[in-house]
Structures are given as C-alpha cells and as structure tokens.
Amino acid sequence: MLSHRRNRKPSALLVALTLLVTVATVAGCAPATATPEVVAVPTEAPPTPESTVATTEGEGAGEDLNYSPDIPDPEEPVVVTFASWVGSGEWWQNLAEQFHAIHPNITIEFQDVPFEEIRTKLLTQVAASNPPDVAYVDASTTGEFASRNALVAMDDFIAMSKAVNLDDYVEAFMLSASYEGKVYGLPIDGESTGLFYRTDLFAEAGIDGPPTTWNELREYAQKLTIPDKKQYGYILFAPEAAYYWYPFLWQAGGDTLAQDGVDVIWDSDAGLRAGEFYVGLREFSPPDFLNSNSWDGRVAFAEGTVAMYMAGAWFAGVLQNEFPDINGKWATAPLPEDERCATTIAGDNLVIFKASPHAEAAWKWVEFVSAPQNMALLNLGTPDAPTTLLPPRTSLLEDPATFEANPILVGFAENMKCAVVSTVVQPRWGEMEAVLNDALARAIYGEVDASTALIESAQEAEALLQE
C-alpha cells in the first residue's frame, strides 16, 4: 500500500513535485498485525559513473549512449507518447532531443497532464485500452496500476541495461516501483519530509534549536504562539491532514493497514495517541490556514506567521527562489521523535503501459532518462539553477558533488534513514485514504475529537472493502 500524496509544488525546475511512499520495518517497534520497517540508505555505494554531476550535455554514463544495444531500435520511425506534468520543461525537452539523436527512429511526444488529474486520466485510458506508452507517475500509484495488470514488467529490460543497476537504487524507492516480486517502474526522483523552522522567531522566544521530541514540539509551539501578533508555532492543513499525520502515526509505533491489506489498524492505541497529539497542534496553528494546503501555506512561513512547518525538500527550493529575503532566517531539522524516528518519503516513477505497441522503444526512453547524469540533472538542476529534489540512486546520494550547489539537501538525504513505507498493496487504498483524510480534517476543524474520527473512519474504510 502506498499513500496518495498531498499537494506538492515545485522548485525552480519542476512544475510539480511528487509523492508518497510508505515502506516497511522498524526493528522492535512494529505492531503485531503489520511488518513496518525503517529503510535506510545503504552506507556503501557502488562506484559512481564518471561525471554524474548535473550537465545538459547528456554525457557521462559511458561512451556508448545506447544503453541496451541488445534491444533493437525500431526499423521504422515510431512515436513514444510520454504523459507527465513536467514534460514540457526545457530540460526534459533537451533530453528528448539528445535521445532522438541517439535513436533517430524514436520520437518522444510529450502529453502534459496536471498533477491533480493524471491518475484519474490514466485509469480512464487504461480502461479504454489507449494509455500513453510511458508515464511519469506518483510513486504511490505504481502498485495500483500494476495490480490492474496495466504495466510492463521491466525485469528483462533491466537485465540487458548498461545504465540501470537496481543495486544502486535506494531500497525504499524500489519498493514503490515493485509489485509481487517484479519491477514495474523506475524511480526518477525523490524527497523526504523534515521540519522547517524560523531561526529568527526561535531566537526571539529564547529557544536554542529545533525540537527533537513530541513534548518539545508542543512546548515550543506554545511558546511561539502569540495570537495578538498573528504569530503561531505550527501549521496544520486539513485538506492534507492524513499525509502530514503519517509520521506521527509511525513514530508512535502504529501503521495504517495490516499485512492482509483488509484490516484497518490506524485506530490502534498508537494511532489514537498520535491522532490526539497531531490534532491537538491546532491550538497553535493559524485558524485562517486550516482550510489551506501546504503550497498556499508557504506564505505563512515566509511572512513569519508560522514558526514551524513540516514539508519535503521541495519547500527549501520554494523558499530560496520565491522568498530570498528570509534567507538566513530559517533552517531544517529531522522530525521530532516519539518511540522511533520516522518520516515520509515521496517520489515519482517512470512506467511503461502494457497496451503500448512500442514497449522496447519506450524502454529506451525510460532507460536514457534514468542514466545517472540525466537523473542528476532532473533532480539537482545545474550550478546556475539548482533544484531541491533528490536522486534515488545511492551512488549519487553518496557523491559529495551532488550537494555542492545546495548543501541543505544533505539533511534530507540523511532523513531517508528513517523513511517508512508499506509493502501492502491495496487497490482501493485511494478511497480508504480519502475517508481517513476527511475524518482527520473534521477533527482539525473541531467538528469531532481525533479518536472518534479515527475509529469511525477505520470502520468506514473496512466497509468499503465489503461492497
């Protein structure tokens, strides 16, 4: 099961970022009904291919840029359709031109679809047997499409590739791209969630550093909340309530679904405790932003209305590019912990649809974009235009050059050691999560207490599976 992510917006490069993964096992902290686990970035990386630093030249992963020579190019010209919400970007277009020069019989046709619409549109196209050849999808949806038998398993292609080495991918991201032991997508970008805080407001309140525990989070939020000054310690977003609650659930030792994918366990004792704490932060949150989302709410942090803000690495890029006047007045930290450290990670995968008449040509494009130097470009940008996504390859994360243009990303890469993801695939998870989100939103609005919201939503979600 992978959760559908909350609203994510881009750094300078991408029109939108992507979303959520929920992985798997925290030693000694898992409830008996689930098998959650923290998935860490490997400490020893395979050798980094030469010149993986971001470049626009399409060079660096070997002299021969036809990475699967044993897979023949089409003898006649073909068009590979590529659906995404980022494909119209200049760097993507440049990569398509370089790709065409290497594979002259393959032309990439970009199909732009808004992030909010792409899942629904792809499901409709799959039902009508006319999906695109390739799509750039939120990692949370890969298992959903694979479970519908809509995607091409890439294992045979990967075995013939000189550019794709699965051992080089961060395990948590590969879990989002796999289903029933086969690979149905390749992770192309990623991020983790951390805590942003206003160092200037902390100093004014006499607080030396960021909170490291739940108790400190609440204590600091209270100190930083001065309603007469329209200043608040934290910020909650009811429309994205579930996504930002997950870290608290996991930190408390809870989970969403049991391994059978049928039993809802977010109303466990751990879940109820996490829900009460999380919803309780509304006391220190600006009421005018409760109905907002994490994109629109960025203004509250930039203007000093909010002192602490949970977000992914995308938010660093937004602050650097949109609000340069507060550079030096904010910093980042890992999320405060309870029984264990835990955070969400988010990412996007490249998938090939089974109905594609050009699966081999589509693979050539997926493989080319996934080559280390191209992945670095799409995630990190260039020294003149850095961005704040993270490449999901260990070799890039272990390369100091990866962080030269934007050192703040180091912390988010380290956060991945506490990433939690769930290997449970539940085809109706999107509907179930919507029930959970609506219930938590009502609690944030004060219409119901958190425990009641979680218990009733668990019952409603289980009832969905009986229909």
What's the gist of this structure?
The protein is α+β, with helices and mostly antiparallel strands and 467 residues long. 34% of the residues lie in helices and 14% in strands. It folds into two domains: 248 residues, 3-Layer(aba) Sandwich (D-Maltodextrin-Binding Protein, domain 2), CATH 3.40.190.10; 189 residues, 3-Layer(aba) Sandwich (D-Maltodextrin-Binding Protein, domain 2), CATH 3.40.190.
How large is the count of helical segments? 17
Low-confidence parts: 1-63
Cα separation of the termini: 19 Å
Major sheet details = 8 strands, mixed
How does this structure look, described?
This protein is globular. The chain has two domains: 19-191 and 346-420, D-Maltodextrin-Binding Protein, domain 2 (3-Layer(aba) Sandwich); 193-342 and 426-464, D-Maltodextrin-Binding Protein, domain 2 (3-Layer(aba) Sandwich). The strands form four sheets. Strands 1, 3, 4, 5, 8, 9, 10 and 11 form an eight-stranded mixed sheet that branches. It has a two-stranded antiparallel sheet with strand order 2-14. It starts with 18 loop residues before the first strand and ends with a helix. The chain has helices at residues 90-102, 115-127, 142-147, 155-159, 171-176, 199-204, 214-224, 241-251, 269-280, 298-302, 314-322, 359-370, 372-380, 394-397, 409-415, 429-444, 450-464, and strands at 19-21, 38-39, 78-84, 106-112, 134-138, 178-179, 182-183, 186-198, 308-312, 330-333, 345-352, 381-382, 385-386, 419-420. The longest helix has 16 residues, at 429-444. The model is unreliable at 1-63 (pLDDT under 50). β3 (78-84), α1 (90-102) and β4 (106-112) form a beta-alpha-beta unit. It has 17 helices and 14 strands. With 467 residues, it is an alpha+beta fold.
